[in-house]
Specification:
mainly alpha; 3 helices
């Protein structure tokens, strides 16, 4: 049975490698701490270079100085491709 929304099956969802970044003592992380945590994850994943990632999804809950959750993009989503396609290179 297909699970709606992520394009994967329920069976395969359990095989995902979950990585959680948390601030010290549950406090919100600064952007610098978040960036450092992401760099640490990348360094950790270097030992798995023989494999390929099917996809990766990062969920961010951002807060303002008062602790209120904010949205930095009205669409609420951004897709990044770590490579250039032929169309990108030709300006299509």
């Amino acid at each position: 049975m297909k699970e709606r929304g992520n394009g994967g099956s329920r069976k395969n969802a359990g095989s995902a490698y979950k990585i959680k970044l948390r601030g010290r003592d549950g406090a919100p992380m600064s952007m610098r701490e978040l960036r450092q945590g992401l760099f640490d994850i990348v360094r950790e994943l270097e030992r798995y270079e023989a494999y390929r990632a099917k996809w990766a999804t990062l969920y961010l809950t951002l807060v303002d100085e008062d602790g209120n959750e904010i949205r930095i993009d009205t669409r609420g989503e951004r897709i990044l491709y770590p490579y250039k396609s032929i169309a990108d290179e030709k300006g299509l």
